[in-house]
Amino acid sequence: MKITTYYTAPTPATSATFTVQDVIKLALSENETVRAQTVDKLRSGSPEQQVTGIVTTMFPTIEVINKTIAAGANMIIAHETPFFNNNDETEWLKDDDVYKFKRDLLEKNKIAIWRFHDHWHGHRPDGIIYGCLLKMGWEKFYKNEDRQLLTLPQPEKLSSIVARLKKALDIPSIRLVGNMDAQITTVFFCLGFTGIGNISKLKPDLVINGETRETENTEQIRDGLSIGEKTNLLTLSHSVSEEPGMVYCAQWIAPKVPGLKVTSIPSGTPFQYL
């Protein structure tokens, strides 16, 4: 995903201004519960600073930060960590040149980074899953009560789903454990970096995930197929599987901040495919 997409809600008759804290409150306003323990915290910048523009992204990479500056924005809503560990701990990085460069870049340009991870997954619909389904044209199959489990109205060949995913997410390859000729009706979505869940209980025709520990459910699925089980696995990689959810985040939040330009800047896959 190499494009940059812009969303701007109409400017109201009376000009409004938004602080970083205002934007955070708006982003959390549709969640039934605001968690006390969460990674969704401000990782740089000040809650009181006035927002000049918003960027949504998966990973707030140095490249994304530079594009944010060029776009005239000063707030990044990022799904994942800027500092290479889920809790954004920085003590272990205090002598790291990459961390110091990134921190200095953020401070010099007064860029606020706010993590929107737990509450975006907790939103109804789950913002990450729904964004991916929008790209695939499967959003009508989403049910809040099932969240990760979809039932297609009629079977679709696995090879067709692979082609759909590659086109929708603009990715060159997908890892498969299974049979490309399999007919798929039930699909379990567990995007990003996650465990796959209770395969033995759900027995879906297909699991679509970002990445997982290959000693665990990946091997369970492989062994299952060898004894006649029907569950297949498509692994997309972490970043590309969740990035559409942050594109959707830009579309979703823009009407809440009229007059501010909201820019979706995908961080993209870190990998080259050889």
TrEMBL record:
Record's keyword annotation contains Metal-binding:
yes
Keyword DNA damage part of the UniProt annotation: no
User: Which terms are listed as keywords in the entry?
Assistant: Metal-binding
Q: Matching Gene3D superfamilies, A to Z?
A: NIF3 (NGG1p interacting factor 3)-like
Q: Cite the InterPro entries for this sequence.
A: DUF34/NIF3, DUF34/NIF3_sf
Kindly give the PANTHER family that the UniProt entry links to this protein.
GTP CYCLOHYDROLASE 1 TYPE 2 HOMOLOG, NGG1 INTERACTING FACTOR 3
Concerning its family, UniProt says: Belongs to the GTP cyclohydrolase I type 2/NIF3 family.
Q: What is this protein called?
A: Nif3-like dinuclear metal center hexameric protein
